Amino acid sequence: MLISQVIGPRRSEIVTAPDPIPSRSQVVIDTLACGVCTSDRTPWRERGDPANPVRLGHETVGRISEVGDTGGRWRVGELVTGLGGDGFATKVALDADSILRVPAGFAPQHVIGEPLADLEEALSRSGILPGYRVAVVGLGFMGLGLIQLAAARLSGLLVAVDPNPAARERALSLGAHEAHHPDELPAEFTSASGGREQRMDVVVEAAGVTSALATSSSLVRPYGTVCVVGYHHAGDAPMDMELWYKGVTIVNGFSPARPRTLRAMADGLAMIADGRFSYRPLITHTFELDDIDSAYELMESRPTDFVKGVVLFPDRG
What does the alpha-carbon distance between residue 183 and residue 311 come to, in Å, rounded to a whole number? Predict the structure, then answer.
């Protein structure tokens, strides 16, 4: 098989490696698509050397080519998505308990399960009810996906917040009722004013930067909820103690439990199947395996026409 690996900061190479052999609890897929994730950017930017290469990619869709002893649950030729690593390769071994069949009739890049599962699992713990006032802060790929998922929950008011005007326009096209620059939020959204509370019941932070946490804190109402979905990498982030005085519930949007994430993935794939969620407006760029460094460079520069990149592979089925 062929696999891309990072051999130095901002430098990848494709090498030939032995095909994976499935254990009794695994399947092997011929990869059809693998999303380029923000969490992979730091290893690509900072790690890797020829003696200790780094292999990335975990947002995979593919066709099963080999099956271990999985009790007849899986068959060669089935199209699946799931949770696993080393996805920037022509073949990938995946745990048979961490994959799901994809809806029929969609391009592989439009049925990637892992990122949608992460977003749906986080929102499922945020307590959004029909009629709630909801804000999403940060409108990259994750934030725009969250806009779709929040809209499907029939929010009473869905507000999108980002400094990028192109991102705000995308959010409006995906179901947001209003879109604002974080420095130009209506006063009634960030403070008690007048006779009626107009701050948000739920605020979802999806930018992964401290300024977005501060904006989220200002938007949430007393006894509301802030869900932190943005990828904050490592280290400390300051907490606005006003959240404590407002009695706000803070939800960690990360799920460390694979069974929970897989259940959310099943829900997300069902939403794709019935049209409540679509990757089509979110996947803006596709790449071949030998051009993966360009995918990461585009993620860093973030031109206005970019949301998310996916590496595509030929279908050998």
Answer: 36
Closest CA to 100 of 229, 255, 261: 261
Element holding 27 (H helix, E strand) = strand 26-35
In a shared domain, residues 246 and 131:
yes
Residue 119 located in a structural domain: no
Domain CATH for 194: 3.40.50.720
Q: Are residues 268 and 161 in the same domain?
A: no
- Per residue in 67-118, pLDDT tens? 998 788 999 999 999 999 899 999 999 999 999 999 999 999 999 999 999 9
Phi first, then psi: what are they for 58, rounded to 5°? -140, 5
- Structural domain of 64: 2-113+257-312
Query: pTM of the full predicted structure?
Result: 0.95
Which among 204, 118, 132, 224 has a CA at the least distance from the CA of 162? 204
Residue 317 in this model has a pLDDT that exceeds 70:
no
